[in-house]
Each structure stands twice: as C-alpha cells, then as structure tokens.
Amino acid sequence: MPNFVDVIIPIPLQKLFTYSISSAEADFLQVGVRVAVPFGKSKIYTGIVYRIHTEAPTAYEAKEIHQILDGSPIVNTKQLQLWQWIANYYMCTLGDIMRAALPSAFILESETLISKNNQKTIDESMLKDDEFLIYEALHHQSSLKIHDVSNILNKKNVLPVIKALIEKEAIKVEEEVYEKYIPKLVRYVRLHSKYNSDEALQGLLEDLGRAHKQKEVVLSLFSLAAKTKKPVKVSDLSSAIDASSSIIKTLIDKEIFEVYHIQTDRVTYSGEQTEASKQLNTHQNTAYNEIVESFKTQNVTLLHGVTSSGKTEIYVKLIEDALSKKQQVLYLLPEIALTTQLVNRLQSYFGERVAVFHSKYSTHERVEVWNNVLSNSKKAQIVLGARSSIFMPFDNLGLIIVDEEHEQSFKQFDPAPRYQARDTAVVLANLHKAKVLLGSATPSLESYYNAKQNKYGLVELFQRFNNVLMPDIELVDVQDKRKKKLMKGHFSDRLIEEMSEALSEGYQVILFQNRRGFSPIIECNTCGNSPQCPNCDVSLTFHQYRNQLRCHYCGYNTTMVKNCMACGSPELDSKGFGTQQIEEEVKILFPDYKVARMDLDTTRGKYGYQKIITALEQQEIDILVGTQMLTKGLDFRNIKLVGIMNADSMLNFPDFRAHERSFQLMQQVSGRAGRTKERGKVLIQTYNPHHKILQQVSTNNYAEMFKEQMDERFNFKYPPVYKQIKITLKHKDFNKVETASIWFAKSLRQVFKNNVLGPEAPPVARIRNQFHKNILIKIPKQQSLQKTKEAIIKINNSFQSIKDFRSVRVILNVDNF
Ligand code: ADP
Ligand code: ZN
Ligand code: ZN
C-alpha cells in the first residue's frame, strides 16, 4: 500500500501538502518529525509531519519527500493540537504558526543564510567530509545560501548537512541576534587615590573637621570596608549612614570619594539557589489559600491584587507547589526586556530550573531552551517568557502564570498568527489539564467579566505589602493654573512644589508622559504646513537628539529641514511635547539633580533598558522622565512621587478601550510610588479634573470603573459583550482598495446585517505606500463564532476569485483589541 504524509511548511497555505513516502520511511516516521520537502518549481522547505496515512491526494500527484531530518519528534502532539486551535480560532494557517512557533534554526529552507559561528572554536576533525567542505567555504565567504551549499556539495539534499553543522555549533543561521548576556553595572565608592598616603588622609580629616556630616560619611566608608573586606556599593554606604545621598554626592564632586563600576556577571550564574522563598504575610496567605481552593473547581483564576501587594511572592509559592508535583511551569510576561528584575528574583529562588525564552535570543540559546523543555530537563522546569513562549514543547505543564494579564502586548497584531497569548494560554492549559493564574492590579475588563460570570475564579488582595498606604493621588487643573499663570512650561506650581519636597528629602521622582499623540511635529508659522512622510499619511516627528525628522510607521527619516518645504519660510515651530521636551524643562527647573529619560530613543541601544533601570535602582538618577515603559511591573524602592504630565491625550484617544487603558496606565504608573515604607504621592495634570476616569483613578475605584465601562460596552456592543473580527484590506492603488472594500462589506452585510461596520479608512490611511480600509464585524454572544468564521472565509474565497481583487491583501484579525 502506498504511504503518505501531510506536512506543514512554514508558508501561509490554506491546506497541508501531501507527500509520498516509502514503507520503510512510514515505519520510521513519527508525527512531529521534520522532513525536507520540495515545493513549487525548485524550492526546498523544512516541514513538520502532521499526519501519516495511506490516502493519495486527488488533486495532484504527491511528490516524494527529500529526507527525514529528525530521529524523534521536535514538536509534540499537544503542540500540534494547540496549533490547530490557533489556526481555527485566529483564522490563520498552520504554516503561519509554524514560523512563529519554532526557533528559526529549526526551519531551514532554500532562502536561509548560514554563516560561521565565530563564538565557538571547532575541532575540524569532528566534521564529516561534507560538513568540512561547507565549513571551509565559510572561511572565505561570510555567508552562504542553501542553494550555494547545494552547488558546493553537488547534491540537492543538503539540509541534513546543515542541520549537523548547527548541532555542532559550527555555523549559525543568519538573523537579528540580540545577546542574552546583560551585564549589570553596580556603582562602588572608595576614597580618592590622592588620599592613599597616611599624611594625605590625616590632612583630609583635619580639613573636614568642621564639616561633621561629611567626616562621618568618610569614617562610615572606612568601617564598612573594614567590616565586609569588600568593595563598598554606593547604595550600601548611603543606607549605612542614614543620611541623604546628597552628602555622598558632594564628597564625590569634591574628589574626596571616587566612584567606579564593577560588572556583576549574570551569565556565569552559579546555578545555586541563594534564597528561600519569603514567608507570606496573612493577606498574601489568605489569597494563596483562596487560589488553591479556587483551583479545585476552576481552571482559571484571576488574582486582582493592588500594586505592591506582593503578587509575585504568591506566584512563587504556587510555582513551588507545581514543581513539587514534578510539573512544568510557564510564567508569561508582557515584555521580557523590562524584566531582568524578575528573572533575578526567580533565579534566586529556583536556581537553574528557570529558563528564559525570548524570540530575540540567538539561535543556539533558543534551540537550547527548546530542547531542554522538550526533554523535560531539570534546567527548564520554569519557562519565563513573553507571548511566544506559549509555543514551547511542554510535556507536563502544571501551571501557567500570566503576569500583568491586562497588557496589550499579549496580543500579536502583525504578522499572523494574530493570537492573544493570555487567551491561548487558557487553551494550552486545558490540553495539559493545567491551571492558569491571571494576575493584575488592573485586570482587563474581559478577565474581570469572566470572573464575575463565574467562568474564572476570583481572588482579591487590597493591602499593599508592609501595609503601606496606596499613594495619595491629587488632580491638578491645568486650565485653572494657566489662567492664574501658575504654569512654568508644562509644570504646574503644585508639581514643582511636590518635586522639590521629594527631592530634598532624598527621594526619586518619576514623570510620565503618554507616548500617544505627543510626538513633537514641526509646523510652519507662515503657511501652517507640516512635513509629511512620503510613504504614509502622517506628519513626521521631530527627534531633537538626532536632529532628524522620522516616520513612526515606516521608519523613514531625513535630517531636520531649515526652511518650510512648502513656502520656504525659516519660521518653523515644534508642536506637541514629548519626553525630550519635558527632560529639557526639568533640567532647567532642577539643575542640581540628575535627570534621565526612558523612551524608545534612549532604550534602543544594547543594554538600554538595563542601564537606566540599574541607574535608577542605584539611585544615580533623581528624576526619570518616561513613557509607557515605566508602567510594566517594575519594583523600585525609593520613588516617592509620580507626576503624570497630561492625562487628557490618553482619555481622548479614539478607541473603545481608551478609558479602560487610561485607568490601567495611570494606576500602574502610580503604583511605582511609595512601594516600601513611606506613602507615595501622585500628581495628575489635566484639563478635565472632573472626568470620571480620573475620579476613579484618584479614589482607586476599580469596581466603579468596571461597572461604568461595562455599561458602555453593553450599550455600544463592544467586547467583552460582543466579540469582534476586523478585516483590513490593503493595496497601493486607492481606487482598488475602495472598490474592493465596498464589495467585501456589502457581501458581509448580506449575512451579518447591521453588525458590519465600515469600510472605513483608519486614522492613518496610508502606510508604506499601501492604502488601508477596515471593516469590523460585531458578533453577539448567542451567534456561533464557528459559523461566523465559516461565512467570512466563504466570502473571502469568492473575493479572491475575482480577478480584479486578487492583488488586494486581506488581513483577518480575530479579537482585534
Ligand atoms: P506586586 O507584584 O503585587 O506589585 P511585589 O511582589 O513586587 O508586588 O512585592 C512588592 C515588594 O514587597 C517586593 O519588593 C517584594 O520583595 C516585597 N514583598 C512582597 N511580599 C513579601 C513577603 N511576604 N516578605 C517580604 N517581602 C515581600
Ligand atoms: Zn510654510
Ligand atoms: Zn512613513
């Protein structure tokens, strides 16, 4: 009997391709094994065996596979079940998912570029003849395509050779590689070298005779150094002397002390766990018990715990429970770049059992984590990662934690698969009979609604750890302040007062400026023209730091113009204010304090985030100005004041979730204040202090926010009350997109009637020279989601069969929020 396999290849095909295999291959092959297969005229792809069977395809004659690449599956059946669910639910192909799920080193194909791995010295005698030839060739050429490899070896089937070279770490697959290694620079202090001799030191102490405080600090440094026999950290010194760090700063400025940095190396991590987990306090303990109880009847439980209530320590206990049952744990985070803090915390509890998975890590690191999870190795019992870590080859998952579950970045918008990792995690957990804990201080309406409907368990924790009070939130009416001439630039008198007070007491300050709607753009004072992106329908934004105009959609950039491009006038002004401008203003208002900025510009470099976070932790920064990045669960000890520069831009953003998001964002930034002993203070500057969301933020009233927002969602048929699917059409010809989208919407209306909105041009209607049109389909709860999708697919298929429309790209986005 002839034998066949259905193979997933990493390109978006509606159906799986079937290939023929010999009966020997059929005996050997297993589902989840990689095979090299020919496709199209001359391409070769790596595919994953999805099904082994004996039914010949009817529409075409099956080609033979080239080669089997693995002895055992690299993707397990639970993963394939998850892929199938994602493909159905998010209306994408298994090929899309394969590309997103596997480290790229697993997906060799004719386009793959390989190069020598310079990080590793290879014993060439270990290489087989074919392998050696390729390795040798890479000494002369920096990279080779698979096609070149074929030519060198004079054979078609080269993927096994390449695979072997990757396994021997002799070569790597070309890609953008971020290094996992993140050095942490810690600031140390010592006596300046000019006081090394006894006389010089004697002289110094005499000179300082009058300055008691300073002398005390110098002596403390001596006694600390003598006691620990180790270099003294600036932070240790300042906590030892119970004096503000300004005295240390003075001593540094006077060159009595000098500062130096030592890199704490995180890569040569010893693998030892260094700490026992913390003893939970009574509130945490109650919450923990409630979660355990809730898991008896619910698969998913939401932990709504205010900022700094100690949610992480509760997660740690739950992780310990899962590990003791020999189960794997997945810890999902919205953004891995910001969470070195957490990685360290978990590694100190769990040692090398914590593995971090990041889509931007290098090939080898990703393959290593993958293989460790696949083999259920001790080294990867806990996987910590951003959304793509739901694709790891778990075999025995017991618990998934979704931290900061409300964060938008769990949803992938582009490219397909456009999945929501939090929601997919619930499905993944079901496949493993595992439990899911969603955690947030500001839960998404969806999750809280699910909890209220008893679909999820709900546990709430309203006390901060140490019983620190929630920050005191004050609203400042900017309009009123302007009238009374009490604004200096973008700073109200109240904000300046509170900043002065906090800083003089030695505390740190965070100033938050929303990223949206605040990019500075250039406007001509004479004719009103603003420079536009040539490829997109947006104004270019001005980046002072590089003296550039940039497009945030396509990356287009040009040097700042001197004259208006329309009328030639030199009178150009910048409108809108970004973090840069605030930074400038702060420097003028508070010249004696150290100011830093955290936004896309300043964190772009290699260790950008880490440097700023470390500097803040080490109290080298007094005032940090930043965007959204500040909000994501960072735990700082010395922040007393948070200023929100302008609340209105968030509130007025044209999106049905703008109010929910504003509430979350403001509560999260506020949560950075006063996390240890002293109650924190938050000032929110706004033109609209009576806005109900601001009232709810200032009174910490999540429940009321939830109720009011849900009423609106009911009235306007928005999620979570209705489901929605967005269809986007794109083409470089405006008229074609216009006609195509009208056709599409009309066909949809025949089925879904009034629940179709659009076509509508989005706020930025042209991006990268492509015109966009959106159509929105609202789906009532009682309407079958499956049938709805089937109808959309049918309409899409008819659409594709119209010759004129074939070149229009159609993007389906399920749960597009
Ligand atoms: P959340 O995630 O709820 O914002 P964290 O888990 O970051 O809060 O806790 C806030 C701070 O309190 C952290 O610095 C943490 O180490 C500390 N903390 C929380 N629970 C305990 C505990 N039981 N014992 C000691 N310290 C704790
Ligand atoms: Zn002009
Ligand atoms: Zn552009």
From TrEMBL:
Q: How is the cofactor bound?
A: Binds 2 zinc ions per subunit.
Q: What Gene Ontology molecular-function terms does this entry list?
A: 3'-5' DNA helicase activity; ATP binding; ATP hydrolysis activity; DNA binding; zinc ion binding
Q: Required co-factor?
A: Zn(2+)
**One Pfam family hit:** PriA_3primeBD
Q: What is its EC number?
A: 5.6.2.4
Q: Which InterPro entries match?
A: DEAD/DEAH_box_helicase_dom, Helicase_ATP-bd, Helicase_C-like, P-loop_NTPase, PriA, PriA_3primeBD, PriA_3primeBD_sf, PriA_C
Query: Which reactions fall under this protein's catalytic activity?
Result: ATP + H2O = ADP + phosphate + H(+); Couples ATP hydrolysis with the unwinding of duplex DNA by translocating in the 3'-5' direction
- Entry binding sites for Zn(2+) 1: 524, 527, 564, 567
Q: Which PANTHER family match?
A: PRIMOSOMAL PROTEIN N
Subunit details: Component of the replication restart primosome.
* Protein name listed in UniProt: Replication restart protein PriA
Q: Lineage in the entry?
A: Bacteria, Pseudomonadati, Bacteroidota, Flavobacteriia, Flavobacteriales
